[in-house]
Design a protein that fits this description.
Mean pLDDT: 86
Structural class: mainly alpha
Order of helices and strands: HHHH
Number of strands: 0
Oligomer: single chain
Number of helices: 4
Low-confidence stretches: none
Amino acid sequence: MLDMLHDGTISPLWISVFIYSIACILINVVMAKSKNYSARTAIILGLIPFANVIFALIYLGLPKKSD
């Protein structure tokens, strides 16, 4: 895989976007579960590239949902 990065077959940008998206999905799911929101919705919103950061910030600022 490192050879493909050196050759330019795989752009480092796509790998960093993939890692960044996984991190945002994890933040979304953890915050959604801790605040009693749907984890499925958090995963779907986390899959949208570049908008997932906004959704992660929204999940951080949401109040805890009452039962």
